[in-house]
Design goal:
mainly alpha
Length: 263
């Protein structure tokens, strides 16, 4: 069997293993999924009218703010789901299964690939569920063309891949599952400090650079432009550049942690 065939076979096995774990222990996934749904309902039905007045002069009301906030909530969903990946990897490390895999005749990279692909699939499913809730309460993207929908899905998948590699690295570098959960919290907090809920221009001057020069804001603005027809500008290239950079960084970090001798 060629090296490529071995890698594909073992990666498929590891992917199936991680999906079975997610199905047998759904509580973590459900807890992480409930957070963006609750925030969506909270910001739309409790703060929607007030927030809309500050963004669009109060003309569109709650429906206008729903359209504005959904892209940010979808990115927040991805960030929250990848926290589960960090916890899952840290659990495997502390329980010794990773050390066991090191001694087996399997492709070394398949363990990481299985975790990454499993997390990306969970991110996609989580986005679909949160998106379904958004549609159920009135979100519509009727102006988006078929090409824009494809680009939006591709962007969400690319963001999922980038954040997953970072989360897996956090899991590999953490001493236990609790530490992995804490170290991955920036993946949930950064969307809150972006343009997800209010425009960057509406933020105080001292805070604006924090929201502007981070990976989530260009991704949110690009997704917003694709779904709602707003101006994308340079955000599209910035979002792709951020995703590629984080993917490369996460991959190098994960492989270096995985191949080192356990202490």
């Amino acid at each position: 069997m060629s090296n490529l065939s071995l890698a594909v076979r073992d990666s498929s096995t590891m992917l199936r293993r991680n999906l079975l774990h997610a199905r047998r222990y759904p509580s973590l996934t459900l807890n992480l999924l409930l957070t963006p749904i609750m925030m969506l309902l909270l910001f739309v039905y409790v703060f929607g009218d007030v927030m809309s007045a500050g963004i669009g002069g109060g003309e569109g009301g709650r429906a206008q703010y729903l359209a504005y906030v959904v892209p940010g909530i979808l990115l927040l969903t991805i960030g929250g789901t990848t926290v589960g990946s960090a916890v899952s990897v840290a659990t495997d490390m502390t329980e010794g299964i990773i050390a066991r895999f090191r001694t087996m005749a399997i492709h070394r990279g398949s363990v990481l690939v299985g975790h990454v692909l499993g997390s990306v699939l969970q991110c996609v499913m989580s986005v679909i569920l949160v998106g379904a809730v958004a549609v159920a309460i009135g979100f519509r993207a009727t102006d988006a063309t078929a090409v824009e929908w494809v680009l939006a899905v591709g962007l969400l998948a690319l963001v999922s891949l980038a954040l997953t590699w970072i989360a897996v690295g956090m899991g590999l570098g953490s001493p236990n599952a609790e530490a992995a959960s804490n170290s991955a919290m920036p993946l949930v907090l950064l969307p809150l400090l972006s343009s997800a809920f209010v425009p960057v221009d509406a933020m105080p001057g001292w805070f604006r650079p924090i929201a502007e020069y981070q990976p989530f804001t260009p991704a949110i603005e690009t997704l917003r432009g694709l779904l709602l027809g707003s101006e994308i500008g340079h955000n599209g290239w910035l979002a792709v550049a951020w995703c590629l950079a984080l993917t490369a960084l996460g991959y190098v970090w994960c492989t270096s942690l995985f191949v080192r001798d356990p202490k």
